[in-house]
Amino acid sequence: MTGTSDYFEANRSQWDDRASIHLESAFYDVEGWVAGAAGSRRPTTGPRRREVLALGDVTGLTLVHPQCHFGLDTLAFARAGATVTGLDFSPTAIEAAGLIAGRAGLAEQARFVCANVEDAPSALGGATFDIVYVSLGALCWLPSVERWAAAVAPLLTPGGRLYLHDVHPLAWAFDEGDEVRLAHTYFEEAEPFVSDDTQTYTDQTRPLTHVRSYEWNHSLGEIVTALLGQGLRITGLTEHDWTVWPRWPWLVDASEEGEPRWTMPVGMARFPLTFTLLAERPNAGSPGDQAVPRPAAGSADQP
């Protein structure tokens, strides 16, 4: 019987492949990012506009980025003045993140740790941070959103904020073919969605070697409830009619100011493609500090 540890191992092997391919891609444009080159597909001098609007000035703050891949988004906050920590289960990605930090002159402001997100509190030695930053494409690789919440909530210092931007679970449930039709569950299920895909979401010149991967959907209600169960207070939830890559061929390129953005064509009924959630850990003694964190269901070794 395949269990969670087997799922994680298969996904880690694929993400090692993905990291090496993504480092070569125009989608990530690592060379342009390091150089801060004008015209790079990704913001090169700091966080994206939506993150600046949500989090404000991060100068002097501490930030942790679970599931950071090879750290471009993590290091964007270092360029903006934060002290950052990236965590990812892919050794290939973490090694690359450290090298990129050095090349970009950010090594003193950044550290990278190789660990599973479910082990983040212990892997980071019980450290807490002003900001927990979770970027697009994170939750689908995790079998339990309750275990995820139980891992990220302890990383927040009192008054600290969680920023989550991810694929909307409704969009995740749709087929990736030309037609818009429900093909997968909207809710978290014990059994994963199994994929054997040789391609990633970037431009690439070679296929994945490890093709088998496992994914799970998590409804918006399940995500919110898991965070509330850990004593966090939800301060914002916005559903967006855009995403950052052309998942369907009929999406329209609406990119602006160096930020990739793809949305529905004019005249098509809109539905959410991504969402942004903001939450905070109340300061001790505040009215919102009465919630008692609920332990995560199961352990990391359960299916």
Tell me about this structure:
- The structure is a single chain.
- This protein is an alpha/beta fold.
- It has one domain (4-37, 44-244, 273-280): Vaccinia Virus protein VP39 (Rossmann fold).
- It is 26% helix and 21% strand.
- It is built from nine helices and twelve strands.
- Strands 3-2-1-4-5-12-8 form a seven-stranded mixed sheet, sandwiched between helices. Strands 9-11-10 form a three-stranded antiparallel sheet, with no helix packed on it. A two-stranded antiparallel sheet has the order 6-7.
- Helix 5 (91-103) links the parallel strand 2 and strand 3 (110-114).
- Helix 1 packs parallel to helix 5 (91-103) and helix 7 (145-152) packs parallel to helix 9 (220-229).
- The chain is globular.
- The termini are close together.
